[in-house]
Amino acid sequence: MAVLGSLTQEFNSSNMRYCINCCIHLLPDDLHRQCFTCCGSNHNNQKCPVCKGENKIPLYTDSKQMKLLAVLEVRTDHSESWNGFFCLRKGKLCSLMFGLIIMTLVMASYILTGAKHGLLLIPSPFHYGAFTSNPSLMDNESLSDMKDHYQPSKMNISYVKDYPSIKLIIDTITSKIEFMTRQRPDLEELRKQEPHMFSVIPNKFLPNSKNPCWYEEYRGNTTTDPYATNSYALYSRRFRTIFDYLRKVFWNHLYHYKDKHYRLRCLPHFYIIGQPKCGTTDLYDRLRLHPDVRFSAIKEPHWWTRKRFGIIRLRDGFHDRYPVEDYLDLFDLAAHQIQGVLQSEAANERGQMNNIIIGEASASTMWDNNAWIFFYDNSTEGEPPFLIQDFIHAFQPNAKLIIMLRDPVERLYSDYLYFASANKSAEDFHEKVAESLQLFENCVLDYSLRACVYNNTLNNAMPVRLQVGLYVVYLLDWLTVFDKDQILVLRLEDHASNVKYTMHMVFQFLDLEPLSEKQEALITKSPASNTRRPEDRSLGPMLPTTKAILRDFYRPFNTKLAQVLFDDAFLWKRT
């Protein structure tokens, strides 16, 4: 006879006998008076209503009270195993029922909260399928962060079966695409919106400087800190070192005339306006090696698009607006050098043009107009009445603009890998693309294409930035205010395969002086900047299905872009 636990009590024939089915908790007086089917020592198996007909072996114990954790039932006939099931105790049955209820509640909580992982048994509405690996779907990519090859997914979920559903979403979006020319606001309307900006920046610039510069009277004294209230210095420690240096040399660069002090102010001669994850950092790093090129103290001030509206970080909401003076301070280092050239030329070679030019490389300038709705009155159909380019053109009608573009499909995946913080994977990217497409479809069903592209609520709701890859929408809006010969549009794919060629195009566009072979080699042979991080490379490329979906989505926009630029390379056809 087997025993549960470490039961050391010895059994003997003098002990009382109790029915094992009902007398579970033994009493000190050796008589289970509450058991109506047992009668103490006179209990008889054959007469007991519970035990009758069953060959049970009673459990013998002594008169000492015992708290058994379990009851060991020993049968002489093991074939009757079903009898034990029907003899479950009420306590055990209640525990079982309680456990089932708890489990049901937990499952319901997962379902109601829409959890995409864990115990959720209902498939996500955005969990679309993937095609099987097909090399014909892949591009011949030359970029350093586009050389990965697709590895078949190890997931058991099929991504291919729901492709027709998401294709219907794309077809709906395509049917709503209409490229409408926007009406350009007049100068007086712009003045009413930004009166302070127009009071600071003059209408004319110095004639002997290639870069737009002017002298501004400085009314402070030697004890005044000219950068004490600069928002860039206050909100970022990175820039404080720069401004500490500027404070030390500030008075040495003031121009003194008739008992007054003047400082040289400058705006950029050219802007690298976009797009993000398209090689703008690499272009910036190479271009600033040219001896006649200077840049702002920081690569991306984001003043036109964000800081002048008080946006420091998009997730933090609005702060105090950065005045235009704070933006101009970022060009003081370059202005000091230009001033030095102007003064030396005035003394020796009067009338010779200063060739130093300043650039600014905020990759948000081309596309980010999300803040307009909070500061400007709404227009019909929810379209912004004023765009960034309207103001830049008002001050600098001769500004030059450089745009670096990339296959929008690959750009989006690179953007996702760069900005996503956790749980990055090709499958997660696929789901975010599907969700973003559905949100974009909902918008174009009710509003114009331009209204959706510049819709702050929509852009913040989409898990991935689909709208940034709609290059032609932004380009057409820039062409409403700037001439086509003022805009240079490059492809990252061409830049990656032939850096020397693209840099020559940029130098020619900016009218820069020719370089020596040594200077040119320094610029063109330096390693690429801001390539994909090793940890992101290990994730591999996107799923083939995701690529096919995004190609379908971007195709009509790429077609229009190629028509505008008269260059089929911007179709990004598969090879």
UniProtKB/TrEMBL annotation:
Domain of life: Eukaryota
UniProt entry tagged with the keyword Membrane: yes
Keyword Membrane: yes
EC number: 2.8.2.-
InterPro entries (alphabetical): CS_Sulfotransferase (IPR052654), P-loop_NTPase (IPR027417), Sulfotransferase_dom (IPR000863)
Chain positions covered by the region annotation Disordered: 523-542
SUPFAM superfamilies with a match to the protein in the record: P-loop containing nucleoside triphosphate hydrolases
Keywords, alphabetical: Membrane, Transferase, Transmembrane, Transmembrane helix
One GO term (biological process): hexose biosynthetic process
Domain (Sulfotransferase) ranges: 268-532
Pfam families: Sulfotransfer_1
An MF annotation (GO) of this entry: N-acetylgalactosamine 4-sulfate 6-O-sulfotransferase activity
Spans traversing the lipid bilayer: 93-112
Family note: Belongs to the sulfotransferase 1 family.
Protein name from the UniProt record: Sulfotransferase
Organism: Falco tinnunculus
